Amino acid sequence: MSPQSHKNNLTPKGIESNGYSAGKTMTKETRNHSSPSMPWFGMDIGGTLCKLVYFEPKDITRDEADTEVETLKNIRRYLTKNSAYGKTGHRDTHLQMDDVCIRGRRGTLHFIRFPTSEMGNFLALAKSKGMANLVTTVCATGGGAFKFEDNFKKEVNMNLAKFDELDSLIRGMLYIETTNPHECYYWSNPTDDSKCQKVPYDFSEPYPFLLVNIGSGVSILAVYGPENYKRISGTSLGGGTFLGLCCLLTGCNTFEEAIELATGGDNTRVDKLVKDIYGGDYGPFGLPGDLVASSFGQMNSKDRRNTVTKEDLARATLVTITNNIGSIARMCAVNEKIERVVFVGNFLRVNPISMKLLAYAMDYWSKGTLKALFLEHEVKLSLSL
């Protein structure tokens, strides 16, 4: 897989020229020409999950309120007064960002998610709420922006303004980090539950850094500056792999169920450890006895298979996928001579197990030279809102 270089317009001036400002308020003249279309949405349609970002303006003038159509008021009320939509749609209220500035308007960013497999129901909901009467174009990124383009046009008469997935990833990250000073953090003492905690990290001077985006699959980017990055590697073994294998092995149906099972499991009952082979540490190469030597290595024994639980299998699957991602990320960081590795993507949502594993692995195997960093938000917002 050959590296792919890309240069884009992501300097602070470039960000503001695309409608984003680090807390600055535009002039009245600029604001009046900011965007004629409300509501403002951005969509990241992934292989497993669809993420929807909705900007709710809070600085609506009296004239705007008087002329606002009832359909728009209803949509705003529906989106902001609920945290669940049907059986599978959810608004992550803990991620809500207040008092942000977009295109000269101040308001709140809401983050909504639903399984991509429910796209048909989402379009039906959008149609029933009259959204198609207000919005002719929705900005979107991710593979689903191509896959579902005809569906949007046919079902709700909407066009998709498609934005490159990796462009949107970088742009969204820069915008979020600039807007939220507590966005970036790391885990201290990740292997000690009694001492482990999230610690804020100053990411104001970030370059260079490695960006590891863990969705259904994994893409790894080396970011050298606001206008210069390249995709250097990736793997098909990502969040989609974890969920698919867990569904097969445990009978679960959702990512949340799989993580809940993994939280109560013990992977050492499934995996073969170094001490299972050597009776302890492997001293000559500095391999501790508790290190996984062979993922699922104990499952070739019928007796062992009869004793493991669904929780154990889910935990072993999570550890296997996470260790593989961490190993690839570490090798990429070493090759690029980059010390900061930022892990993002929906795989890490409600998944502190993987974050702590990655934090420990980066620190241990690099002897403290690599730093694993994380973000509070999913970042493929796109500068298209």
UniProtKB/TrEMBL annotation:
GO-annotated molecular function: ATP binding; pantothenate kinase activity
Gene Ontology biological process terms in this record: coenzyme A biosynthetic process
Coiled coil location: none
Keywords from the UniProt entry: ATP-binding, Coenzyme A biosynthesis, Cytoplasm, Kinase, Nucleotide-binding, Transferase
EC assignment: 2.7.1.33
Subcellular localization(s) per the UniProt record: Cytoplasm
Presence of the UniProt keyword Lipid biosynthesis in the record: no
Chief place where the protein resides: cytoplasm
Tagged with keyword Cytoplasm: yes
InterPro entries membership: ATPase_NBD, Type_II_PanK
Region (Disordered): 1-38
Domain of life where this protein originates: Eukaryota
Pathway: Cofactor biosynthesis; coenzyme A biosynthesis; CoA from (R)-pantothenate: step 1/5
Signal peptide: none
Biased composition (Polar residues): 1-11
A GO CC annotation given for this chain: cytosol
NCBIfam families: panK_eukar
Name listed for the protein in its UniProt record: pantothenate kinase
Annotated source species: Pogonomyrmex barbatus (red harvester ant)
This protein's encoding gene: LOC105431937
